[in-house]
Amino acid sequence: MSIKSAALFQEPQITIEGTSLNFGIAQGYAYMYDPQYTEDAQLPVNQKIQIFLQAINKAATLCSNNLTIRSTDSQELILVQKALLQDSAWQQRVIDKIENKLSITHALDKVLEDLDIALGIDNFWHARSQEIRGISQLVRQCLEKKEINFDKDKPIILCAKTISPVEMMLFEQAKLAAMIVQDNSFLSHGMIIARSRGIPVVGGAVDLKEFINHDDELLVDGDLGRVYVRPHSITIANYDISKKVSLSKSSENTKNKIVISRDGTPVHLSINANLNEDLASLDHSAIEGIGLYRTEIPFMTSERWPDVETQIRLYLNVLNKAKEKFVVFRTLDVGGDKTFQSLHKSFNNTKKGWKHSRFTLQRPSLIRLQLRAMIRARVTCDYPDLPLHIMFPMVSEAQEMSFLRTLIQKELDREKNLGNKIPQTVRIGAMVEVPSVVFQLNQFLDLVDFISIGSNDLFHFFYAIDRTDAVMSKRYDLLSKAFMQMLKTIIDKAKAKNVNVSLCGEMASRPLEAMALLGIGLRYFSVNPSSIETIENMVQSLDIWSVQECMNDCLSDNPFAYKAAHLSIRERVLELAQIQQTQLS
Ligand code: PEP
Ligand code: MG
Fold first, then answer.
1. pTM higher than 0.85
2. Residue whose CB lies within 8 A of the most ligand 1 atoms, among 294, 328, 359, for a mutation test
3. Which residues have C-beta within 8 Å of that of residue 35, sequence separation ≥ 6?
4. Domains, the chain, ranges and CATH?
């Protein structure tokens, strides 16, 4: 009887639409992670402060323990968490609120709220405030007596409001199949780690507790940003989950092979790297190098500004791991960080767009130290005769590029005067991610050896939307005619000037978008390590000639040339992929 009624009242399948924070499909059981702490309202203030400080110690110990068990560079991110936890200014803010009669958890929330107001909505600060949200949640976890328990053999899907790097370490021993988060942004450190580990993530989800019970069966589609709660057997059958296993990063170690399309066109793939963990993907034979190495991650995670020696060690490690493959070092792309208090004070500017060149052009000495470290690392690494590739982000004016070039020249001259070796070749590049550059391309292209399109920022600046705003980001399509037209202009002009052009935004890692990019002439892609095989499979099963024809047709201004005017570019490219049986997953 009870079995029958259970079956009768079994809850139906629910579909939750969110956004894709990392690709991949996974099936598993919900683990509802929601640190709760119920406080005795009668507790004297002093005792509350003691409990708060004990929780901080417990959280810091947790960080230290994770530092010893983890051998990878996730350690850097844990160190940031530890440093943030021990930040006396933050602790004092919480203590002040507790002294003002707030409960510990309420005090933690209130400090976060105040910070959100003070820091504003700038992407960078938004991501940083998430770090503080992360430590607040960790402290809550440590306030609570309940331990985290899971069956190590059961695939779990972590469901949380937000996840910090250290909290991810709490699930180190778990079989973590996927994650669903409400508030993490794409740029938060928890997500950077998830991507490095190839864990599918859906973000921007609605109140999870309302729809998901602990232990519910879930199917997560990180490609579409969709979650099926208690999926029907038909839904599961439609997904061939076995095909979606993420790339085994260190497996191949074979000689380079260039990826060739079905109609014989070579396509060049490289990776975007943020952490040491990403470097393992260099062993993949299809990968020719690192198209974007984001140097700001180690800067963000250091308590102090890394000196030249520290930076040299970091860059040497990357170059030696890359061996003969190329590495494009992107110079610092942040406008300041709370861990660099001295810089933060003098550049107390959290406004949107206060990024790389606007920041470093005011402080050339900082960028010069970084360039010095890159030059020294190149000449002392195991492959000292290979070119040094340096790329500047967020350049907005041709004059800025000229100035940045003079900084490199000054550093090379300085090294020569000191009797030090300098690289045989230095290739200087820039990211094209501010639309103003597109209107001065001819002049700009004369100043660079290569460009890489930063479609993440370019798209959002182009449509005047906030990159972290999930709702707005969905409003416009990356494959819109206007945006694709702009990308084609960049690609055509670069090719006409013989300047190598690649694209390193997330767009390159999405198979349908990458297919359209091939159709407008792009041949160099720098992709997220977890997307290498998907993009490789797409290229190998694609007839580039016909997608080129399709894109010419879509971008044509002649209404009669546009054969299927009622369809969007996305629909037309998808239709073509279906006709050609191009692999999109
Ligand atoms: C971009 O803007 O496309 C890019 C690759 O840079 P980031 O995502 O680091 O801003
Ligand atoms: Mg960018």
1. no
2. 294
3. 137, 138, 140, 141, 143, 144
4. 14-35+147-243 (3.50.30.10), 45-144 (1.10.274.10), 255-541 (3.20.20.60)
